[in-house]
Amino acid sequence: MSGADRVTLELKAVQVRIPIGAGREVHALTDVDLLAIPGKPHFVVGGSGSGKSTLCSVVSGLLPSHARFAGTVSAAGFAVPELWRHRGRVVGVVPQSAMTCFTPVRRLGGQLAETVRYLGGERGPAELLDLVGLDPSALTKYPLELSGGMLQLAAIAAALAGDPPVVVADEPTSALDRGRSEDVVRLLAKLAADRVVLVATHDLAAVRSGAPDADLSVMFASRIVETGRAGDIFTAPRADYTRDLLAALPENGLHPLPHPVPDLIDLPADYRYGG
Q1: Residue 120 half-sphere exposure, CB side, CA atoms within 13 Å?
Q2: Average pLDDT over the chain, rounded to an integer
Q3: Under 8 Å CB-to-CB from 272, ≥6 apart: which residues?
Q4: Is residue 124 classed exposed, middle or buried when 0-12, 13-18 and 19+ CB atoms within 10 A define those classes?
Q5: Tens digits of residue pLDDT in 154-213
Q6: Helical H runs in the chain?
Q7: CA 19, CA 29: separation in Å to the nearest integer?
Q8: Order of strands, edge to edge, in the sheet holding 166-170?
Q9: What is the C-alpha separation between 60 and 67, in angstroms, rounded?
Q10: pLDDT tier at 5 (50, 70, 90 boundaries)?
Q11: Which letter, b or e, does each residue of 214-230 get, where b requires 16 or more Cβ atoms within 10 Å of its Cβ?
């Protein structure tokens, strides 16, 4: 994508409800507004069950088939549901588990080449690996021969195979140590120079050290409670939940959250943190 193509990813008033039977439903996303632009990676953080992965799924079209969606999601001239039909070409996806990207009994090079052909990408497997900083010798290896960090880089390379203007990564650092996590965060921030990059992660420390100038949205109980520059939020958070979330980090004393995480089933519309 050229620098002139200022593709944005925009979510407006997005709601996702997942029926679970007996007239009950999970409030997976509620009134979510988000704007992600090229040049600045956009990280989404929050505790388990806050809605981060659902947010990624609503952009990439990987919601459960019975989920109910409302609102607007648009990018590159497409809006949902048409946007979902262009997964790979408009929206590249890095899944939670990098191993799920690949067939274990085939070498990495052949799988990447097949993905490029299917999506009509312009970069070959070796160029994709170079883009993510992975040695081309990995092309001759089976996925199980790669370390966790190498496999994560390969998954990011696969997400770029169709030259998508938008890349969505769901918990790309979850199985990595601190050093590798920061490397992946820096890579994703670098890739955002000429495309939209949206990343859901629980790893606040990696974002703080690896991408302080990124945009950051904090989620709690299916809602975005705060958005701003990552470094500013880490230094002076505005939302009560963000302050308590940061206080729970090991380097800040591992203080437990003073308020319980709510059940998202039939969550009251007026629920707020501490309420």
Answers
A1: 5
A2: 94
A3: none
A4: middle
A5: 999 999 999 999 999 999 998 788 889 999 999 999 999 999 999 999 999 999 999 999
A6: 52-60, 108-119, 125-132, 148-159, 178-191, 204-210, 230-235, 240-247
A7: 13
A8: 91-94, 166-170, 196-200, 42-46, 215-220, 223-229
A9: 14
A10: low
A11: bbbbbbbbbbbbbbbeb
| CATH superfamily for domain 1-90+165-275 | P-loop containing nucleotide triphosphate hydrolases (3.40.50.300)
Q: Which of 106, 160, 87 is nearest to 129 (CA)?
A: 160
> Does the reported pTM lie above 0.85?
yes
Determine if the peptide bond prior to 262 is cis (ω within 30°). no
Of 240, 172, 248, whose CA–CA distance to 206 is shortest?
172
Q: How far apart are CA 82 and CA 74, in angstroms?
A: 9
Domain with CATH 3.40.50.300 in the chain: 1-90+165-275
DSSP 43-95: EEEESTTSSHHHHHHHHHT-S-TT-EEEEEEEETTEETTGGGGGBTTTEEEE-
219 closest CA partner among 11, 6, 23: 11
**Computed over its alpha carbons, how large is the radius of gyration of the chain?**
19
Question: Residue 106 is inside which H or E element, if any?
Answer: none
Contact of 196 with 23, CB cutoff 8 Å: no
CB-based contact 51:14 (threshold 8 Å): no
Residue whose tokens read 């519309």: 269
Copy the structure tokens of residue 145: 């021969």
